Amino acid sequence: MATDAEEIRGLGHSVKRKEDDRLIRGKGTFIDDIRLPGMLHMAILRSPMAHARIRSLDASQAEALPGVVAVVTGDLMAQHNLAWMPTMSYDTQAVLVTDKIRFQGQEVAAVIAEDPYVAKDALELIDVDYEPLDPVVTPQQALESDAPVIRDDKEGQTDNRIYHWESGDKDATDKAFAEADVVVRLDTHYPRSHPAPLETCGCLADVNPATGQATIYMTTQAPHAIRTVFALVAGLPEENIRIISPDLGGGFGNKVPVYPGYVVATAASLLLGRPVKWIEDRTENLISTGFARDFYMSGELACKSDGTMMGLRVSLLADEGAFHADAQPTKFKVGLFHIVTGSYDLPAAHVVADGAYTNKAPGGVAYRCSFRVTEASYLIERLVQNAAYELGIDPAELRQKNFIEKDQFPYTSVTGFVYDSGDYHGAMKLALEKIGYDDLRREQAEARAEGKVYGVGLASFTEVVGAGPHKDYDILGLKMSDGAELRIHPTGKAILKISVKTQGQGHETTFAQIVAEELGIQPEDVKVMHGDTDNTPYGLGTYASRSTPVSGAATAMVSRKIREKARKLAAHLLEVSEEDIEFAKGKFFVKGAPDKVKTIQDVAFAAYTNFPEGMEPGLEGVTYYDPPNMTFPFGTYIVAVEVDPDTGEWKVRRMVAVDDCGIRINPMIVEGQIHGGLTEGYGIAAMELITFDEAGNCIGSNFSDYLLPTAWETPRFELGETVTPSPHHPFGAKGVGESATVGSPAAYVNAVIDALWHLGVKNIDMPLTSAKVWEAIQAAEAAPGG
Fold first, then answer.
1. Mind telling me the catalytic residues?
2. pLDDT of residue 1
3. β-bridge mates for residue 485, sequence order
4. Is omega for the bond preceding 132 within 30 degrees of 0, making it cis?
5. pLDDT beneath 50: ranges in the chain
């Protein structure tokens, strides 16, 4: 029980992460730590080709290898109606191939063996005769009239187009462009990247053939949604399916989809009557699981000569891979990309989006961001930076001239979002002050006079998170609400069960702090459970920056529900009317008589021992939260770089990041999240890339080719914050989300372009490797007038 001198460590306290006690001691329980009696091991044979028909498959030698229990093929899965499965985007995806290969790394067959090494060895004994087909490796190629149809399995599919989607007002936008003095254009590709979590994907399926009970340990960020999908795919009663997501070594959106390995392992366990474990290796993870980004974007910004923005026109082409499996809200085909108007008071905008199948792995997951918001933020911030140069206006001044004003909130954007609150000028002002913007510009001019190449890049982003209100947001028809169940034990300790799943964000600490704030129970006295569908309330899970805005809100609401019952109990114990009871910091006291007090612990004990006549005993509740609106965290980032024009190498000299995520639950954890996002943004801007050659071979299938930033390359970050609470969230949180990943890539790139604009370099697509920067400089110098 907290004493008078002991402060309740609720919102705003940098409480050390409770979960770290076990994790830093190596006592976590990850999927590969779990062993079950009689457990078998599964390995998957993957296609070396991007597009091919299977003429024949001979698994006889593999089946004869000692230790091999079974070989599972597409034909065997088809006999049980499991050769195909639904994706979370209303498409279908092959579990094991029955007709043709559609991307390199696609699942062809699986070996089940007594030992994982035997299973791997047996893969080499499976003889597959492939008939090569012409691969389609870009969405532009996919939409050509003579392109091979990738999804010829789908009835009525005559080309490679998946969707066409629009947002905004075309007529108003055309009018704005007709009246504009200046039109700034930018064509750019946000390249394919990969979440590359420290732990790859895997599962351990244990299906009891006698009872039909399926317990599946799985690396998933959304266990409840996965359970529902499994019930639909396998035809098992949902009450007989238990998904347990243990400790996860990162997720970043990569562990949201249903992967074929999950389905095959479960089917194998059902057929063999023994547990089956599957753990993919790093190359499998990089070439076959959910990628991110891969948008080809064209933007036009219409402005008056004084810098006033009049309209925005955007077209994009999304490379969705061989199956449409990006898990976006049903209503929005390219996620929330239409937040592309950003932080600006734009009177008109029109967005046109198309998606295409290609011979690449499917994905398009929300990688450290809300749904496709990172791509949107990147495009508008690159456009605005280039517009500043073409108009001859300082990039900071142009942004401030066009920001949505503080008194305009709630603000309805021309693409339909209702921004909850914001102070964009405040965040920009703080960022400019922290980096010493005017002095930095003077240094840049002086350095240029000495032949040095310095650049300063800005990005002012608005993210949209917390999906979402049920009328607009669902995945596979499942509304995007989340739940929290809270029980206060007789001794005043508590157990909180949440529907979202942590992958390193610190939920076991921060959600306990929400309870502490609402009820006065210290965080260490609140046990937080998650990841087990039999022991947590239903919800859509942790991805797209949803946890705090949705399940965090549910936690606050269920705490308040319990507090109201506790108030009645306190009135009973203090022998006064309920209206005479006040509550503060874990104590109920009588108005005007503060010495007459009962603690939350006193009340909890009474809930089981001394409750009034007619009251149900106990002190617990469950709440499902359907958010009335999204939340809109925002910020301004400024990067200063130095570029060596002789080599193309660029180095970050300063990086200032000012974020506003509303009320911060745990500032230390928030800062850690921001540091991680800024590092990821730097990685995307500088080095991370998955690409393909003309044959569809994946370039980026290992950490020698797919580069990740280390402590050696990562720059130092200087953080700042403003606080603008969300008016509709129960405790004003907007959610830190992954704003740093959303906002920072444009800031890094804008800094390099700022350094090189005077040389004629107007755009370089990420990643900005030294070679690409050098080539851009050479091309600009060789151009007429260069």
1. 221, 368-369, 738
2. 42
3. 497, 622
4. no
5. 1-3
